[in-house]
Structures are given as structure tokens and as C-alpha cells.
Amino acid sequence: MRFLQLHLRSRRVPLALAIVTTLIALAWALSLAYTDSATINARTASLAIMLSVVAVGSTLDGADGALDHTMAVNWPVRRAGHLLLAAVVITALLSLSMVTDARYEPFAVMVRNTAGLLGLTALGATVLGAALSWIAPLTWTLIAVLPIMVPSRDVKTQVAGWLIQPAGTTAATACAVVLAVTGLLAYAVRGCPVRPVSETSPDQ
């Protein structure tokens, strides 16, 4: 238990959890206050989820990159568990809205978007490091929520705007699954790049 507490603190998980909770609650409160719809707008929901996974992205690397690659710890399992737990927490927070007058629905779309954006964030962390893992999810989300992006039968549009496509859209679901699985496997196996000692050591 002590190791788990230290692990969570070293990765700034408590702060990230507070940020995720605040973002999801804020989007819900704004929708409740300023719209009459019982369903939170897909674009608003996608932005809330994107900002939440960006917060999670900051927890994907520890203070000591070399330690996160030591063979003494089964890091692939721990990294995979970290991502899966983040997905569970975000979807659980989204599901709390189901008992209120402003809901994140359809819930299948919320699960799809959370999984896909988390996978995209994990891919970003694997390639660029946790500090820059926000670039890919932010960029794709901003493209998807553009006014010109609408639910469509065109496969290219469904992929580009997969975040706002209706539940059951095959291309959007496939895109999210590919991102989720690829990101999970890449991050679990490789983790974040090891930063030079000069970037992690205090100034002399």
C-alpha cells in the first residue's frame, strides 16, 4: 500500500484526478445552466473528455525516467493498468450525470471517445514524452468539433470527425478501437522516452 501511495504521488495522480473531476463537473454544470437539452452536446462532451485525458497524460511518466524502465519492476503490466484505471475513472465520472437533468449521452459514445482519446494520448506520450502527450488529442479534437464536421455517411468524414459521430458508426468505432489498442500496447511495452539526466536533475 505504501508503494502504491508513493507511485501515485510521484506521478501527480491526485492532482490529475482533481482536474479531471473539475472539468467533467464544469462541462455538466454549464450545460445544465445554459441549455434546455437533457443530453450534453457531443462537442462539449468531447472537449471535456479531451481535457481530462490531457490531464491524465501528465501522469504517464515519473520523475525518474530510468526507473520507469528498470527490469526489476513489471512496468508493462503497471503501465497498462494505469491507462485502464484512468479509463474507468473518467467513464465513471461521466456516468454520474445519468441521474441528473443533464446527461453525458449516449454513454456508448462517451466510452468510445474516452478510450480513443486515451489511446491517442498514450501514443503521444510514447513518441514525444508525457509533457507533450497533449498535442495529438488536442489537435484531433479541435478538428472534430469544427462546425463543418457533422455526422456523415462518408467514411473519411467519419474518421476525421469520429468524436462527434453517432453511436454505432462503424468507421468511428473502428478508429477509436485502433487508437485505444495501439496506444495501450505502445505505452505498456515502451513507456515514455527516457529524458536526459540534465532535464530531470536540479540545477547545480
Write the layout of secondary structure elements.
Layout: H1 2-10, H2 13-34, H3 42-57, H4 75-95, H5 107-128, H6 135-144, H7 155-160, H8 170-190, H9 197-200
Helix pairs in contact: 2-3, 3-5, 3-6, 4-5, 4-8, 5-8
Low-pLDDT runs: 197-204
According to DSSP, the number of beta strands is 0
Individual helix count = 9
Task: Report the C-alpha radius of gyration, rounded.
Answer: 18 Å
Shape: globular
The chain-level mean pLDDT equals 86
Largest sheet entry: none
Order of helices and strands: HHHHHHHHH
Counting helices, strands and paired strands, the structural category is: mainly alpha
Question: What is the distance, rounded to the nearest whole angstrom, between the alpha carbons of the first and last residues?
Answer: 34 Å
Binned strand content: under 5%
Helix content range: 55-70%
Structure description:
By secondary structure, this protein is mainly alpha-helical. It is 64% helix and 0% strand. The chain is built from 9 helices and no strands. Helix 3 packs antiparallel against helix 6. The protein is globular, with a radius of gyration of 18 Å. The protein starts with a helix and ends with a helix. Residues 197-204 have low confidence and may be disordered.
What descriptors fit this protein?
204 residues; mainly alpha; globular
